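#struct-pred
JK: can someone run the complex with magnesium ion? inputs below
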Amino acid sequence: MNKQRSEIAHVDLDAYFVAVEQRDFPELQGKPVIVGGSPESRSVVSSCSYEAREKGIHSGMSMKKAHALLPEAIFRRPRFDEYRKTSVEIMKFFCEYAPGVQQMSIDEAFLDFQNTRYLYDDLLVVLKKLQERLLSQFGLSCSIGLAPSHYFAKLASDFDKPYGFVHIEPDTEKSFVNRLSIENIWGLGKQSLKRLSIYEIRTVQDLKKISPQNLSVILGKSYAQYIGAVLEGEPPHSFTRSSIERSTSVEETFPQDLQTGDAVRAGLLSLAQKLSGRLNADHHISSVIVLKVRFKDFSTFTVQKTIFQQHLHTQKIYETAVGLFKKRWKTFDPIRLMGIAAKRLQNESQLVPDMFETNKDTALRKIDKTALDLKNKYGNVSLRPARTFSLYAKDTKKKNISKKTDS
Ligand SMILES: [Mg+2]
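RT: done, structure tokens with the ligand placed:
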């Protein structure tokens, strides 16, 4: 009776941005649709319909390439405000079902059903219902993975997209891994895959044949341990709680590469303002700032800092990001993209009285709040610090913000 059961679900919306477009504009249904910036800009595909995927388009591909490959596709500009609004409603809807909901990004969340046997006899029935209701009430399709751990629930939801439903029973994780292709191992990045392919390691079976020592030589010790655990059907140790904490981020591919300190500061100020606007709008506080920098040659680095002040405003985020940048790079190559993320998000209501906040901080937060109120009152007005104008001065038409992609 008290048999072990899987109680962690991962729910991931299918091609979320495109799905919202197809829902709101039914004429787009069944067609190859690509959401992203202008094909003339340097932005990337944020989301594409399954019809477009069949023709070789994928998230993260440059819009230019997507356009060359599939000129007949329907190209749409993203409507982030709408995606965020719908996402908030969906997260509330998840809370009707699960006692614990951890939002991972705009379109995915972990639903924690641990110790709910008294509530729910059969989680498969409950989750199937959730999947059907999401489709009928929100007009959106999702894929669900149910597994004994977060890590395997995430692998499961990704296994049979779209509208997938994959259940991994306790003690069957190891055999599930045998069915994966190597690209599906969550946490293995493009660089690692590239390095493995040099050694002709392309499948899970290939991975299993190689000794842990040799894998360490190829990928480094921590990655080798990570993969070793996954192959054994264990959630990797480095996949700790912090990996499943909520975060939010903004990033931008700039119209021209940034080459001077002034340009970098202007870029960071613009990002800081967007991030603080989002934190404010979602009533979130955070204590970790992550800076991401991608250079002209596409090499990408992230650095992060924990700060004691949780209630962030534009100036604080900006100063932290500039500090991180200066510490890491004394000189730098042209920069293509930068991003700032706030990690360890919590709701404002969980804020303990902030001992580190000064009167100046309170005033600066008020300025952010005013900007947000104006935006809410007058719609999509664009309030930008004057110092950021130079970023777009040369070519305002090509200005494009590439957001995180979805899948
Ligand atoms: Mg998704």
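RT: quick notes.
The longest helix spans residues 261-281.
The chain has a mean pLDDT of 86.
JK: thanks, will look after standup
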